[in-house]
Amino acid sequence: MEYVPFGTTEFKVSHLALGCMSMSGAYGPADDNESIATLHRAFDLGINFIDTSASYGNGHNHELIARALKGRRERIVIHSKSGSPRAPDASGNRSGSAPEYLTQNCEQSVKRLGIDALDIFCMSRVDPEIPVEESVGAMARLVERGLTRYIGLSEASANSIRRARKVHPICSLQMEYSPWSRDPENGNIQACREFHMGFMAYSPLGRGFFAGVVHGQNDMSDGDGRNSHPRFQPGNLERNLQMLARFESVAKEKGVTPAQLTLAWLMAQGDDIIPIPSNKTRQHLEENIKAAAIKLGKEDLDRLNQILRPEAVAGPRSRDMHRVNI
Known about the structure:
Layout: E1 3-5, E2 12-14, E3 18-19, H1 32-44, E4 49-53, H2 60-69, E5 77-81, H3 99-113, E6 118-123, H4 132-145, E7 148-154, H5 158-165, E8 172-176, H6 188-194, E9 198-202, H7 236-254, H8 258-267, E10 273-275, H9 282-289, H10 298-307
Parallel strand pairs: 3-4, 4-5, 5-6, 6-7, 7-8, 8-9, 9-10
Antiparallel strand pairs: 1-2
Helix pairs in contact: 1-2, 1-9, 3-4
C-alpha cells in the first residue's frame, strides 16, 4: 500500500481509504460482524484511513467502529463528518452548520467512538444562511478544546474554502468525485492544491454503479437509497448503462474489474486525491484494494475520458443539488 501526505497534517495515509457508510444500511442491510471483520481486514492490508459520519445509522456507524478500533486506535486516522440533523416530521435535513450543532455533534462523536479526539472533524455542508466563518469559528474552538486535531469541509466551493481559511486552517475537502461526477475539476481541486489541502473523493464508484452492481431496477432492493437517486431513475439509468458498457469493455481488456479501473482512474488524478470507496464485506474490500497496483498511462486516461464525457451522463449527481458545492 502506498502512503501519501494528507494535506497540511502530519499524517501519512493510505492512498485508498475506507468509507464506512454502507456498514450502516445506506445500500441495504449490513451485518455488523462482517463489517467489523471488513474493518480489521482493511487495517491488516495497510489501510490506515477511515471515513465516517455522525449521521450514518444515527450513531450506529460510530459505535460499530468503536468496537473495531479496540487495540488499534493509534494506527488509524479517523475522519468524521458532522452530518445534518433530521427534522422530527421527516420533512428533510435541517442545517448542520449551526455552531451549537457542530459543537454537540463533535462531543457526541468522540464519545460514541470511545476516543479522546477525532483526527479530522469535517462539516458536511456549508449553509448559505449561516456564514461559513461562524461555523468554522465553532470548529476552531473544538480544536482548542482538544476534541479534534484538524478540521475539514465537505462540498464546499473554492470561495467558501478561502473564507473559511481566514478563520482557521482547513486541512481537507471532501466532495463527490467519480467518473460520472467531475464537478471538483471546476475549481475545487485547484483550490485544495493552492492551499496544500487533502482531497477525499466520496462515492468514487458512483454509489456502486461503476462496480457493476446495478444493471437494472431489479438490482436495487426496496430499502436501497439509490432508488431515489436521479441517475438510477428509469430513463436516466438506461442511458447511463450504455456508458457503463463501454467502460466495462475497457476493464475487461485490461483484465481488471470495473471497480478496480474506476479507483485506478481516480488515483491517477494525483497523489492528493484519496478515494474512499464504501465497503461492508471483505470480498469487495479485497477486490478494491488491488486497484492501488494498477497504473494507467496517458493513452488509457485519454480513452477513458472520452467514454466519460460529462454530456454522456444522464441526470444530476444529487437530488439535493441546492445543498452541494456552496
